[in-house]
């Protein structure tokens, strides 16, 4: 994984814990590679300058696996994010707890703008209730594809 094409990370949680991303930043995952853990990045983009998570190189979409965590990718009160060309999964054999691929939410954040854009993203192996803070009464979903 690369951050703004200059820093590479071995673990997805490193990107989440130690860096606050700003408008125009990129978090790039190498095509054909696998990362395990939650991606809970910090920071927000801006109008015309989102923060982009995408793949680099040729090959299969990089896999980000939540490995049974509550969610694989979480944005809390953040705006102007784009997720492109990724394979997000969150498999577990324990069906007693819900698992989500993406979870976008916020508390006391006011009005959200451009929370996130998903393009060419595969979301597989989950047991979830689709959630977005702005939506209510969404159906429960199970399966391998969304």
Description:
The protein has one helix spanning 12-18; strands at 2-3, 7-8, 26-30, 34-36, 51-56, 63-65, 71-76, 81-84, 87-89, 100-105, 116-119, 122-129, 140-145. It starts with a strand and ends with a strand. The radius of gyration is 15 Å and the shape is globular. The strands form three sheets. The chain has a six-stranded mixed beta sheet, with no helix packed on it. The model is unreliable at 2-7 and 128-146 (pLDDT under 50). 5% of the residues lie in helices and 40% in strands. It has one helix and 13 strands. With 146 residues, it is mainly beta.
Please supply descriptive tags for the structure shown above.
146 residues; mainly beta; six-stranded mixed β-sheet; 13 strands; 5% helix; 40% strand; globular; disordered N terminus
What topology, given as strand order, has the largest sheet? 2-1-3-5-8-11
Radius of gyration: 15 Å
SSE pattern: EEHEEEEEEEEEEE
How many strand units?
13
Instruction: Give me the secondary-structure category.
Output: mainly beta
Give the terminus-to-terminus CA distance.
25 Å
Number of helices: 1
**Biggest pleated sheet:** 6 strands, mixed
Please indicate the percent range of residues in DSSP E strands (runs of 2 or more). Answer: 35-45%
Q: How much helix is in the residues?
A: under 10%
Low-confidence runs: 2-7, 128-146
Using the alpha-carbon principal axes, give the shape.
globular
Mean pLDDT comes to 75
């Amino acid at each position: 994984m690369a951050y703004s094409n200059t820093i590479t990370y071995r673990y997805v949680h490193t990107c989440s814990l130690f860096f606050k991303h700003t408008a125009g930043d990129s978090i790039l995952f190498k095509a054909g590679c696998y990362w395990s853990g939650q991606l809970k990045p910090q920071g927000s983009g801006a109008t015309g300058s989102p923060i982009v998570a995408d793949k680099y190189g040729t090959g299969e979409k990089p896999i980000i696996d939540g490995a049974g965590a509550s969610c694989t990718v979480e944005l809390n009160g953040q705006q102007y994010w784009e997720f492109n060309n990724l394979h997000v999964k969150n498999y577990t054999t324990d069906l007693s707890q819900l698992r989500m691929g993406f979870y976008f939410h916020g508390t006391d954040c006011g009005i959200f703008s451009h929370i996130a854009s998903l393009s060419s993203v595969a979301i597989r192996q989950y047991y979830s209730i689709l959630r977005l803070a702005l939506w209510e009464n969404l159906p429960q979903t199970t399966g391998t594809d969304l």
